[in-house]
Amino acid sequence: MALLDILHFPDQRLRLKAQPVTVMDEKTQQIVANMFETMYHFAGIGLAAVQVNIQKSIIVMDLSAEKNQPQCFINLKILAKQGKDKHEEGCLSVPGIYEKVARAKWIKIEALNQNGQLIQQELTGLPAICLQHELDHLNGKLFIDYVSALKLQRARAKLKKQQAEPL
Ligand code: K1U
Ligand code: ZN
Questions:
Q1: Percent of the chain whose pLDDT exceeds 70
Q2: Which ligand places an atom closest to the C-alpha of 132?
Q3: Residues 76, 118 contacting (CB under 8 angstroms)
Q4: Residue ranges of domains in the chain, CATH in brackets
Q5: Of 22, 106, 111, 128, which residue is the least packed, with the fewest Cβ within 10 Å?
Q6: 165 given a catalytic annotation
Q7: Which parts of the chain are beta strand (E)?
Q8: pTM of whole model > 0.70?
């Protein structure tokens, strides 16, 4: 396994769109394993392949407190959605910035799991929010794209300051 580098805003590679996975081969399994390692290392609850400069439709997620319930979504599609809810979001590609974003309250999804089996799930709460956030990454979209210009300006300034500070 290997730890992958996470791209940070405003890196334009975060704007690239993912392509569907066509074969669940050894290479795909390796990417999934490396994404889990990276997500756990940086204490995220989700990670999309575009964030680690891989333009493939792969998402990993683990919402458990013990970090022992890994879930993988390949070629995720939202089949239906309902309602709206605002929730504070963070992003490993936009460190230190937290903003409220309105997302669908209920979603029905279809995807392949890590074994290549087709799954369908109905989700609400944090799993629904997280998967919508990750699917946006696969379409080159960031949660800060939804916030006001003023908040975005503040976020950019905060990030610039953080990036200039020595570790
Ligand atoms: O995609 C990412 O960058 C991962 C992101 C997922 C996410 C968190 C919160 C709402 C929507 C999507 C993170 O894991 S951010 C860091 C984090 O661990 C976290 C933030 C808020 C709540 C719970 C965890
Ligand atoms: Zn993110």
A1: 99
A2: 1
A3: no
A4: 12-164 (3.90.45.10)
A5: 22
A6: no
A7: 46-48, 58-61, 71-82, 85-89, 99-103, 106-112, 118-124
A8: yes
Question: How far is the centre of ligand 1, averaged over its atoms, from the C-alpha of 1 (Å)?
Answer: 22
Task: Identify the CA nearest to 35 among candidates 71, 75, 76, 89.
Answer: 71
pLDDT tens-digit map of 105-150: 999 999 999 999 999 999 999 999 999 999 999 999 999 999 888 8
| Cis previous bond, 10, omega within 30 | yes
Query: Maximum Cα–Cα distance for the chain, whole Å?
Result: 46
Residue type, 99: E
The token pair at 154 is 């503040």
Residue 18 CA, ligand 1 centroid: distance in Å: 20
| C-beta separation of 3 from 41 below 8 A | yes
User: Which residue matches tokens 């690239």?
Assistant: 16
Q: Is 2 helix (H, G, I), strand (E, B) or coil?
A: coil
Look up tokens 């074969």; give the residue.
23
Ligand nearest to the CA of 61: 1
Checking phi first, is residue 51 left (phi over 0); if not, alpha (psi -120 to 50) or beta? alpha
Q: Which of 26, 66, 122, 134 is catalytic?
A: 134
Beta bridge partners of 119: 111
